[in-house]
Design brief:
Number of helices: 12
Number of strands: 10
Order of helices and strands: HEEEEEEEEEHEHHHHHHHHHH
Radius of gyration: 22 Å
Helix content: 40-55%
Strand content: 15-25%
CATH topology of the largest domain: Jelly Rolls
CATH superfamily of the largest domain: Jelly Rolls
Number of domains: 2
Distance between the termini: 37 Å
Strand order of the largest sheet: 1-9-3-6-10
CATH class of the largest domain: Mainly Beta
Structural class: alpha+beta
Largest sheet: 5 strands, antiparallel
Length: about 300
C-alpha cells in the first residue's frame, strides 16, 4: 500500500500488543499495583470502571468498550462495581485471560496488556503519545476497535480450539484499531504518530520514505507538499516536533538499526544505501543518534537476542 508510513514504522519498531491478564467480577471491586512496563493498556469489555494513575488530575471513567493507554506511568488503581460492603481486591492474574462463564451484560469485564517495542520503538512511540490516552468506544472512529474487543471476548470466553493463537492475533489488531481511533479522537502531541498521519505533509513523507538516500532539500519537500518553504518548515516542526531534515536523518537511523539487527550487511554498504558520503560519516551519525557505533549496536542486539532465546 503506497504511502502507508504507519505500517512501515510499526514494522521497524516491532510494535506488538500483548494481552497479559484480565478478569470478570461482580459487586464492588478494586485492583491496585505498580507498573513495570513502559506502556500498558486496559480495555473495558463490559461494565464500567474508574482508572487513576500518577500524573493526571483525577480518575478517568471507562465506559463499555473504552480503552486507556498508560505511557511511562508508575502505578495504577482501577475500581468499579455497585452495591454495599467492602471492595474486593482483584488482579488480572486471578483469572489470567480466562473468562469462561463471564457475562459482559452483568459483569465488569476488564482486560489488560502491554505494548512491546524494540529500543528504536521506545524512542519513537513513547514520545508520540501523552502520559494517558483515553480512547472512547462511543466515537464513530472506534467502530473497528469495538469489533476487535468483541472478537477477543468471544475467544477468551468460548474455550474454543485455537483460541490462544486467535487471542495473540486479535491483540495485535486491537492495538492498531486503538491507535487509529485515538488519532481521530484527540490532538496528538508533536511526534512520529502525528506526522505520519498528517495528510498535508504526506507527499513530502512519501519522498523521504521512498528514497531515504537522496539528499532532499527543503525546497523539494515543500514543493511536493504544495507549500512555501517557510510554511512547510513551520508546519513540519509543529507536527513532528523536529525539522524535516532531522526527521529524514532519524528515519535513516531506524532503517539502519533494522538492517543491523536482521542481517549481516557491511557498515560501508549500509552507509552508501542510506546516502552517506563515507562509512565514517554514517558511523558518526549513527553514534550521535543511537549512542553507540553500528558494530557495537549489532553485537549487543545479537547478544541480547541469544540470551532471550536460551
Amino acid at each position: 500500500m503506497t504511502g502507508d508510513h504507519l505500517s512501515e514504522v510499526f514494522d521497524l519498531v516491532e510494535v506488538r500488543g500483548v494481552l497479559s491478564g484480565g478478569f470478570a467480577v461482580r459487586g464492588l471491586w478494586q485492583s491496585c499495583g505498580t507498573i513495570n512496563e513502559s506502556m500498558k493498556f486496559f480495555a473495558m469489555v463490559g461494565g464500567r470502571a474508574r482508572v487513576n494513575t500518577n500524573g493526571i488530575d483525577g480518575p478517568i471513567d471507562l465506559e463499555p468498550g473504552d480503552v486507556v493507554i498508560l505511557n511511562g506511568r508508575s502505578w495504577l488503581r482501577v475500581e468499579g462495581g455497585t452495591g454495599d460492603g467492602p471492595r474486593r481486591e482483584v488482579t488480572p492474574e486471578e483469572n489470567e485471560l480466562r473468562f469462561i462463564g463471564a457475562d459482559r451484560e452483568t459483569d465488569d469485564v476488564l482486560l489488560g496488556g502491554r505494548i512491546d517495542l524494540n529500543e528504536a520503538g521506545r524512542a519513537v512511540l513513547l514520545k508520540a503519545l501523552p502520559p494517558v490516552a483515553h480512547v472512547r468506544a462511543s466515537d464513530a472512529a472506534a467502530a473497528n476497535m469495538r469489533g476487535s474487543l468483541d472478537r477477543l471476548f468471544e475467544e477468551m470466553s468460548g474455550n474454543r480450539m485455537g483460541s490462544a493463537f486467535a487471542i495473540r492475533q486479535y491483540g495485535q489488531l486491537l492495538l492498531l484499531d486503538v491507535l487509529r481511533a485515538y488519532v481521530n479522537q484527540a490532538e496528538l502531541p508533536p511526534g512520529w504518530l502525528r506526522v505520519l498521519t498528517d495528510e498535508r505533509l504526506r507527499p513530502a513523507l512519501d519522498l523521504m520514505h521512498a528514497d531515504p538516500a537522496k539528499s532532499w532539500g527543503l525546497e523539494d519537500l515543500a514543493r511536493a507538499a504544495a507549500m512555501s518553504r517557510t510554511a512547510f518548515a513551520e508546519r513540519f516542526r509543529t507536527v513532528a516536533g523536529l525539522p524535516p531534515l532531522t526527521y529524514l536523518n532519524r528515519w535513516r537511523m531506524l532503517l539502519a538499526q533494522k538492517a543491523l539487527r536482521d542481517g549481516d550487511v557491511r557498515v560501508g554498504s549500509l552507509a552508501t544505501e542510506l546516502g552517506y558520503a563515507s562509512e565514517s560519516a554514517f558511523s558518526n551519525a549513527f553514534k550521535r543518534e543511537v549512542g553507540e557505533s553500528p558494530l557495537r549496536y549489532r553485537n549487543r542486539i545479537r547478544s541480547d537476542q541469544s540470551l532471550a532465546a536460551s
